[in-house]
Amino acid sequence: MTYFHNINRIKYEGPNSTNPLAFKFYNPEELVGEKSMEEILRFGVAYWHTFTESLKDPFGVGTAIRPWDRYSGLDLAKKRVEAAFEFFEKLQIPFFCFHDIDIAPEGDTLKESNQKLDVIVAMIKDYMKDSKTKLLWNTVNNFSHPRFVHGAGSSNNADVFAYAAAKVKKGLEIGKELGAENYVFWGGREGYETLLNTDMKLELDNLARFYHMAMDYAKEIGFTGQFLIEPKPKEPTSHQYDFDVASGYAFLQHYGLDDFFKFNIEANHATLAGHTFEHELHYARIHGMLGSVDANQGHPLLGWDTDEFPSDLYTTTLAMYEILKNGGLGRGGLNFDAKVRRGSFEPEDLFHAHITGMDSYAVGLKVAQKLIDDNVLESVIENRYNSFTKGIGKKIIDGNTDFHQLEEHALGLGEIENHSGQLEQIKAKINQYLLTIYA
């Protein structure tokens, strides 16, 4: 059965193409540095937003028109698999990602849910045999059902903790069976609303115990995928325990988990935390913790997680700069955790949205590589911190001084001369690269 009747395989046609169903900048085979765009960018489709999203919002029911939605239950799940692999094939995308309840409906019991998952996982595994599209990561939804009202791994209810653990156990087994490159933990309700009824230390300790048990079970079954934590500051709880990369890293260090986890960083979550996307990527990179990326963007006028497809070329450039400086994403990738707008309800809009995102990151990749090749930002930073390469500055870096020597140095100083940070000039240079990369 065909679900996208009027869509052919999406091809690269170049910047001058007027075909809306063609890549203008993403050429998977084009070499950037020593690798192809496809190898560097490692794009992924988010199963939930692409195949299960109804486009409902707090003020109205869903508007999405999807040819598979006339089915229900397990039949609907099977049709979504068929539609998904047709979509992957026509988009020629290398990866996809999912939560457990994205691919199969929950049953009345955990046993029934697992049985339904087994049916769909077997179907996905069969489709993957003839597909280039692989599983970037999977995870479980431990936040939507009412049982998780007070959290999962951080719940005050031991039965809920056990139920959440059983779901993750199944998720790791599925990840191994389907060859997942990573496994993601997003603490959807791992946080609190008020300290008036919260034992924060117990919840954090239990969450760490949860992660350690997951790690132990992964070793037991031979699952070798990278474990990833996805930070988010708020929504649905007021205070999420994985607020941002810095707080998440402190948690991992404190509980002895930092050698086993990295971060899956989402652009929209970064801005909700009051950071830029590149800040979160940079913080993770300099600590060796950058694992994978959820590629989207927020709306500057809205204060919640809007999950828009990325189109801001300045942001994609700075993101790709960090990723390239990281040596790539390793086992990670750029997963489009993004949904079309409520008014973009036709099936074809799913292709337009992914083409936009893929083209936007392709531009960012080429500009970032050119900036690195030309040593643009590196030379700026090198010059700005030049005082630490000689004299008292070098002694500070080498650890060959103390407060006595620093006081002696400071007492001998005249007027201290600072130099301009030249931020406007730097931004103008980035704009120049953006505007001339395809000239």
Fold and architecture overview:
The protein has helices spanning 37-41, 47-52, 73-91, 100-103, 110-128, 158-178, 200-221, 245-254, 267-272, 277-286, 313-325, 347-373, 376-384, 391-398, 403-411, 423-436; strands at 11-12, 22-23, 31-32, 35-36, 43-46, 95-99, 134-139, 182-185, 191-192, 226-229, 239-240, 261-266, 290-294, 334-336. It has 439 residues and is of the alpha/beta class. Strands 5-6-7-8-10-12-13-14 form an eight-stranded parallel barrel, surrounded by four helices. Strands 1-2 form a two-stranded parallel ribbon. It has a two-stranded antiparallel sheet with strand order 3-4. Helix 3 (73-91) packs parallel to helix 5. The relative contact order is 0.11.
Short synopsis of the structure:
An eight-stranded parallel beta barrel has the order 5-6-7-8-10-12-13-14, surrounded by four helices. By secondary structure, it is of the alpha/beta class.
Structural topology:
Layout: E1 11-12, E2 22-23, E3 31-32, E4 35-36, H1 37-41, E5 43-46, H2 47-52, H3 73-91, E6 95-99, H4 100-103, H5 110-128, E7 134-139, H6 158-178, E8 182-185, E9 191-192, H7 200-221, E10 226-229, E11 239-240, H8 245-254, E12 261-266, H9 267-272, H10 277-286, E13 290-294, H11 313-325, E14 334-336, H12 347-373, H13 376-384, H14 391-398, H15 403-411, H16 423-436
Parallel strand pairs: 1-2, 5-6, 5-14, 6-7, 7-8, 8-10, 10-12, 12-13, 13-14
Antiparallel strand pairs: 3-4, 9-11
Helix pairs in contact: 3-5, 5-6, 6-7, 10-11, 11-12
